[in-house]
């Protein structure tokens, strides 16, 4: 079993900052991708930032220059530092991990999501 748990969502004013965390635990052999997605009400889930175990990181155009993904492989944890937040960043943020498990091979795992609300 693998668990993915996000934290850090909150209500923040426009222009403010938040840091999301996502911890992956369980029967892990290795973690390949660790990514952040978001889903606003009535909209499809969209990729925000993606990382690989090789150290590459990519960002959606709408967050470039404002959000930073960082990854602590020793702790199986990924972070999303969000600065200069805008009301349109309001969404549930989900963590995704592509995990090579000890007994079941490579699978995709999702967290339960954490709510980010940007409003004055």
Gyration radius, rounded:
14 Å
What's the rounded overall pLDDT mean? 95
Helix content: under 10%
User: pLDDT below 50 for ≥5 consecutive residues: which ranges?
Assistant: none
Distance between the termini: 40 Å
Structural class: mainly beta
Indicate the proportion of strand residues: over 45%
Shape: elongated
* Count of extended strands: 11
Count of alpha/pi helices: 0
Order of helices and strands: EEEEEEEEEEE
Walk me through the structure.
The chain has 120 residues and is mostly beta strands. The chain is 0% helix and 60% strand. The chain is built from no helices and eleven strands. The protein has strands at residues 2-7, 11-12, 18-26, 28-39, 46-51, 57-59, 67-72, 77-82, 91-101, 105-110, 114-118. Strands 2, 4, 5, 6, 9, 10 and 11 form a seven-stranded mixed sheet that branches. It has a four-stranded antiparallel sheet with strand order 1-3-8-7, with no helix packed on it. A hairpin with a 5-residue loop joins β5 and β6 (57-59). The radius of gyration is 14 Å and the shape is elongated. The mean pLDDT is 95.
């Amino acid at each position: 079993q693998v668990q993915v748990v996000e934290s850090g969502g909150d209500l923040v004013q426009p222009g403010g900052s938040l840091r999301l965390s996502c911890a992956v635990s369980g029967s892990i052999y290795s973690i390949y991708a660790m990514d952040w997605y978001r889903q606003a009400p009535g909209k499809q889930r969209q990729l925000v930032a993606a990382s690989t175990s090789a150290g590459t990181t990519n960002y959606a155009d709408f967050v470039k220059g404002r959000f930073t993904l960082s990854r602590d492989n020793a702790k199986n944890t990924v972070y999303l530092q969000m600065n200069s937040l805008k009301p349109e960043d309001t969404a549930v943020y989900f963590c995704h991990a592509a995990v090579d498990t000890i007994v079941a091979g490579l699978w995709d795992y999702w967290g339960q999501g954490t709510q980010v609300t940007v409003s004055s």
